[in-house]
Amino acid sequence: MKISTKLNKIKFSGIGEMVKLANKIGGDMVRMEMGDVDYSPPRCVKDALLKAVNEGYTHYPTFQGYDDLIESIIKKLGKENNLSENPDNILVTSGGSMALFVVLSTLINPGDEIIIPDPVWCHFPPMIELAGGIPHTVSLDSNNKFELNIDELKNKITNKTKVILLNTPNNPTGAVMSRKSCEEVSEIAKEHNLFIIADEEYEKFVYGNNKHTSIASMYDNTVTIQSFSKTYAMSGFRLGYIVANSELIKELGKMNLYSAMYASSISQKAALAAMNNGQEFVKNMVKEFENRMNVLVDGLNSIDGIECAKSQGSVYVWPSISKLGMSSIETAKFLIEKAKVVTVAGSEFGKNGERYLRLSLGVSMNRIKEGIKRIKEAVENKI
Ligand code: PLP
Asked: How far is the CA of 97 from the centre of ligand 1 (A)?
């Protein structure tokens, strides 16, 4: 088919292949491949959505996002992220994904190099390529809690490097960047006059003594991406936002206007209710996710050949399967066929993901326990 060459080069992610295999085999699969939370949004969100429809918020909203939502976002950024922003620093978007796409399309010229971590959320490289950029990876160091390898970062910077794109808490490794690491990356970005894009999709999902740091609080040339998808279990509402300097927000607004045009009006009303009345919901959900994470990690570590560190954050665990003697794709297929558990092969997330699997915490505690039982039986019978 005569589609654009840049799209032609890009394939659908392999996660779909695993889902196809699981659906073909059928039966009672434990589905741990999902990049979503299993909760339903809080009552206040559902009520606000219906109210918005009934009150006639069914037309195009305002250009940057509704004033009351932007006001609420600014308060939140001040209170939680140590960021002092004005309304002209915010652009409400159709989810974190569209926010990323708009930012990358606005910043990148053909041939610009964008530094991303490896392992990395598998949507980053295609998004960069579609914007005309070239992704260059820097390892997350498995011997150092999956922190970015700073020496490698320094070596990867060339005169074509434009952006460092980071994601903390990280999908898929579950690592949360330390303050020190954020400071080091900021220093390097400053020295080379680079943008940092900080994807903070999972900022609320932080466990134990770990703390989320917004890099924008230490480096001005940062574009922050936030979303309502995971925080308030609103992934279907498709709502997120960008925080950046006002000059850039103007340009991002142009890109948004000629792509998504506006973010959903009714979702914005629901998101405002979530911010005003959903904090107890978030606290309880994150507590449950931490419990699930602890049970899943302990369960995986009880299985011969699997080793798993506790996730510091995100909604995933990231066990090493290197002792099983199979590639990550072989292991994921094996688990679908023999254990009826669906996971994602680590290689989907880059070269450094090989020998790992990603398992989602977005399934109930009972299903997590069932999944562990099944994986244990299948793996230990094989060994
Ligand atoms: N960033 C990361 C790291 C993600 O994992 C996801 C979704 O899984 C997104 C951004 C985008 O999600 P949404 O568009 O629903 O905000």
From this structure: 6
